[in-house]
From TrEMBL:
Entry superkingdom: Bacteria
GO CC terms: cytoplasm
Annotated PANTHER family: BROAD-SPECIFICITY PHOSPHATASE YOR283W-RELATED (PTHR48100), PHOSPHOGLYCERATE MUTASE (PTHR48100:SF51)
InterPro entries linked: His_Pase_superF_clade-1 (IPR013078), His_PPase_superfam (IPR029033), PGM_Phosphatase (IPR050275)
Name by which UniProt lists this protein: Histidine phosphatase family protein
Amino acid sequence: MATTTVHLVRHGEVHNPERILYGRLPGYRLSDRGEQMASLVGAHLADSDIALVRSSPMLRAQQTSAPIAGPHGLEIDTDQRLIESGNHFEGQRMGHGQAKLSDPRNWRWFLNPFRPSWGEPYREQVARVVSAVHDARAAVEGREAVLVLHQLPIWLTRLSAEGRPLVHDPRRRQCGLCSVTSLRFVGPHLAGVDYAEPAAALYAGAVDATGGKLS
């Protein structure tokens, strides 16, 4: 049976001077450093046998996709299944103002971390990304595909692939900016998961999706 690899690439750093949880809000683009990160992941994958590049509809993912698709002469397809996870606190600064955990009006959003109650259920995120992965795998059988998306859906998909619980500590996610989580298949069966951080040299001082410093 053919060996096929589907790479899940997280987008680069976003221009977010207000440090809010931008989620699915439109218009959030890569920062200058994010564009450098995208170039690094593009170089990392330039010699791979990439036959397909699909992206989340969010601008930051589309921008990250461009230097990946370019060396292979590919167009970028958009896949709605790769969109960022939904979150009740989108547009707010976590731990500040209306998003404070100490505000009793918010307690109902934190009642069930297993679902989670503040946003799109973990299992639903896994289901849509896994569906996109298998469609990409079937489309490029024997070669490689790249899906460019977002940290939480990637991490949940990896946890599911490795048979681990979906409930987790967000501070312990192994899914850095412009990281590459590679799912290796033999035929339709998952054979292994690999991980790389081609943009790690740019992490110092970078800001993650919630507005916090990576280091």
